[in-house]
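Researcher: Batch entry, complex prediction.
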Amino acid sequence: MPHRAVIPPARWKRRFLFLFAFTVLLPAAVLLWLAGRFGGDIPVDYADPVEHFKYGSTGGEHEMGFPYWIWRALPEVCGQYLPGPGYQSIGMLYEKKPDGSLRDLPVGTSRRRYQGVDRVFVNCAVCHTSTVRTAADQPPVLVPGMPAAQFNMKAFEEFFFRCAADPRFAKEYLIPEIQRQGADLDLLDRYLVYPAAIAIMRDRVLALKGRFEWVFEQKPWGPGRVDTFNSAKVIFNFPMHRLDPKEFDAPADFPSLWLQRPRREPRAMELHWDGNNTDMTERNKSAAFGTGTTPPTIDLPRIRRVEEWILDAEPPAFSKFFPVDQALAARGAPIYKEYCAACHGASGRDFSGPDVGRVTPLAEIGTDRRRLDSYTYTLAVNQATLYAGYPWRFTQFRKTHGYANMPLDGIWLRAPYLHNGSVPSLRDLLEPAERRPKVFWRGNDVFDPHKVGFVSDQPAAQGRALFRLDTAEPGNGNGGHEGRAYGTELSADDKLALVEYLKTF
Amino acid sequence: MSFALTPQRRRWLRAALAALILLLVAGAYLGWSRGFRQEPQPAWVFESAESRFRYGSIGAEHDAGVPYWIFYVLPRVFPEKFRQDGQQVAGGYAALGVAWEQGQELPVGFTKKTIGFPRVGNNCAACHTTSYRRSADSNPVFVSGGPGHTVNIENFFRLLIECARDPRFDADILMAEINRVTHLDVIDQLLYRYVIIPVTRKRLLEREAQFAWIFRPDFPEWGRGRDDGMNLTRYFMLKAPMDDRFGPADIPAVWNLAKYKAVAGQHPNYAGDTHDVHSVIIDSALGVLGAPPADKADFLAQVKWLQDYLSALAPPV
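Model: Structure tokens for the complex:
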């Protein structure tokens, strides 16, 4: 029998430690590092509620977020699908940093690190913030909460779908552009994370493209408008090509978000253009679908901050920008009281009135019916399944048969007028339909203080083509809200006085 | 070396056994709780006789029930299978012409009940609720007990089976869609992926054999508001071999059942094939259940309630 060497205990101990390090410590360390690198869900936060409104997250980045550097690189790589350089060309707004340089992301986008990648997607402000200039040579003033009268949502959607289908949406084109912009990606990002992210994103966007095919077939919405409830049908994957054609071409103006509290108290108003919901939190969550949220990924605490802010946020006063003829305005007040107050509220801050926030039947109001017809009973009942399993399942959506009477706070910044933005100014709205402009241009932020509305007779501004709105196109009809009761038969002097009074709202 | 049970080993063994039993009990409880535990429907369902008629369970969730989240995502995954008159129609379940009240999670006649996990079944109101509008520009009014003249139930039967037949009825695809609409915990995720989805698929495909006759091209479509009630009874319940008989008939109104007086020779059913309202309700309700009732006493109590309710229910004036 051969003699067996006896291994001293110290060596066993060493071997054990070695094995332990190799099988337990090392994998644990790797796992820990991976968890740190790819775990976590950290949005960029802002203490100030207005900054949060402009740049804070709704949670949409989880599902829809673009990796930050892809977002940055796309306008360069797919520039042929934009009307001009950068996201500015479709009406997104970049604020300046204190040093005078532009911020890296436009107003209305938020950033969140999720699954190891910084992601960017839009928030509420993308559709509810714009700028106003007192003259073409004056600097723009950013107004949070006003309708995004320059943002072209259709062009925005089409840009991403076209770009994702382009052969240049590939790591060979995107990563060099990303590095050129100074990303300085580390090895892991450069060779693993971003190539995978590009492939995944391409797949996702192209998978969605089928559901959004109908958008390409719509008449242009132009800046400041969206086809809200046809977009909502996409959530349910309705076969859009099977819809009744009369449901389509239903663009509606982005609304302002100020002063929501008096729209909720003392009486809950019928919200949305057709007044299809009286529950503000449902209305808000419904709109949040537009920022890419889903029931399991919505960031409710951060949305609540926006909800709190819009309860009492106030529109800027017209008089801070232009003078108001107080004597003339005083002459307009009784005219307003006689003709407008019952439906539009006692003033720009007092929304009391028997019919404020209630639906006026279409036969009576007579404005373009497409937006109304785009919202169907079938959609309403399907919306009652949204947020199923959560205590806040939607229960208040209702099909209506008219348009809701809106309070007029900050009405000067809510041009163009009517739900489809088919009348450029308040003064024009006081004319009967046949004397309202048949064609005008949308998207200018220079204000016309006399007619009260944005300058609408220029085809271009600041080197950018504006949108030519033809009221003869489907969905653009500028009729309705006319006749004696609507003030279109007032004398020219009375109309001037009424418009002057509305400047105080 | 001896393997005799030293006191120390015995202690270990005992501890291991205890742990195993504990694990088994916990597992059994979890399985029961997530798979079979019955929860009563929420109180609002029973607030009025009408809401109970429209949304109250008659026990159909046990066998004919579809797991809630599968039911929820079917229109999103298979929109092409929601049809009327051979044409695809937008609107999910609404496309089938069901009576669906605004604000309600499910159409009238669709019941949600948790038996381990939420499931959707049907009750009598799915067919016996009528819908009318005063003008093209107004919302529908629903009348309980009236004939469901808009609903296409043949398409509903077909679409469930057609979905199960489709290769996209697959855990990866359905779970991706479910995860977009709700948050399931780990256990429910695993349960759905490995048990509920495959078992549902299997169950629906088993129905295919019983329902072979609704796919026969030589049989006419039932269309809206009609139902081949006797074939349902023959094939689905009596498991009779298929022959060439068919007989789609209008869904009848079931209000005021007290009007049928057997002694006076007044018979319910179109062919007057019975004089007993009680039998008609049992037969129809069993058709909705799709299987012998899981709880016979409860089922008979439901039938009794229905008979009382429908006997006294007056048609609208």
